[in-house]
Amino acid sequence: MKGTPALNRPAKAADSEKITINLGFVDLGHIDLLVAESFYANRTDFIRTAIRNQLAAHGDVLKQAVARKLLVLGLQHFSAADLEAARAAGQQLQIRVLGLASIGQDVTPELALATIESITVLGALQASSAVKAALAGRIH
């Protein structure tokens, strides 16, 4: 059965992360056969569809876990202005994201250390290498 068009649209570079997986030769051959039979456009299309199907199958469990862990779902961005506001309010942030957490290029390592107590990201964290290095002990 072909995947639905909504599930098969290619992800944009800005909203995706490249991963590498190892597959057995037989599994890979099965995928190639499905591609050759026009069930999927390519290997990536098959793998994305399979992953989305598994995520949908476990949807209720995922929703419960997101709520239990108090995770922000999607994209959460922090600019220098956001962190300066937190510092002015005397707040230490506990960042919890399922998706993408982004710390602006305008954020200095000193500002990040002064305002971010902890970071838990299930997905990807984008920040300068200097900010990541400064927060290394606070990233879980």
From TrEMBL:
Pfam family, any one: RHH_8
Gene3D superfamilies the record matches: Met repressor-like (1.10.1220.10)
Origin superkingdom: Bacteria
Entry-linked PANTHER family: BLL4998 PROTEIN
Protein name: CopG family transcriptional regulator
